Amino acid sequence: MIEEIKKGLLNFQHFTYKKYEKLYQDLQGRQSPHTLFIACSDSRVSPEILTDSDPGEVFKIRNIANTVPSFESSQYDLTTVSAIEYAVEVLKVKEIIICGHSNCGGCAAALSGTDQLSHLPYTRDYLKPLEEVRQKIDKLITEEDLEKKATLMEQMNVVEQLKHLKEYPSIMEKVQKGDLELEGWHYDIGTGQVHVYDEAGEVFIDTNAFDSD
Ligand SMILES: [Zn+2]
Fold it and tell me: Is 4 inside any structural domain?
């Protein structure tokens, strides 16, 4: 075991667990998370810290570039779709958040073109569906503003994954009944800001604007 993990585990057992002891004992036989959080595997994105949540509140799926397979390609990513199915049908979460983030390596790789990933064959094949998003961005931004392109890629990727979620009849049915909300986020690691996708306006809105609510 590496030192960082050993130290962290001991710290958890001696201090953090104690802090949550009652909650953990209460949770040992059941879980009732209110939210399914689909985030990138990136080590800098921490759903619990970002949403100030306790254990038991947020069910999570992590993968490169926070993707959901389209309905027609669901069989190619059973890991993701089975976790969504469980969260929606069994845990009956009230909300699904797809959270993209700044400086996303997966999105950057897709933006450079998956044909450059011959040394990472699994990643290349996995990111292929993002080619479509990249093509849209190439049409929208013709100048070579790489930062602007990267952010747009991360945000449009979130919108694309939301679209995929809506292709699943069981999800759409719950959304239409008002039992489930879908949200798209873009989290800026350097500033801590989160922009939330506004479907009607087709824009990402700074959540700092929610302060006055
Ligand atoms: Zn990422």
Answer: no
8 Å CB contact between 144 and 101: no
Domain annotation covers residue 106: yes
Closest CA to 31 of 54, 51, 57, 61: 57
pLDDT at 212: 54
Q: Catalytic residue among 26, 44, 125, 145, which?
A: 44
Count of the separate structural domains present in the chain: 1
> Is it the case that residue 187 has pLDDT exceeding 70?
yes
Is residue 149 one of the residues assigned to a domain?
yes
Residue 16 has pLDDT above 70, yes or no: yes
Q: What is the CATH number of the domain that holds 51?
A: 3.40.1050.10
Catalytic residue status for 44:
yes
The domain of 164 spans 32-206
Residue 32, classed as helix, strand or coil, is coil
Residue 14 lies in a domain: no
Q: Is 119 a catalytic residue?
A: no
- pLDDT value, residue 211: 67
Q: Catalytic annotation on 104?
A: yes
Q: Which two tokens stand for residue 190?
A: 């350097």
Please tell me the distance between residue 27's alpha carbon and the centre of ligand 1 in angstroms. 30
Taking each helix axis from N to C end, the angle separating 169-177 and 146-166, rounded to the nearest 10 degrees, works out to 90
99 labelled catalytic: no
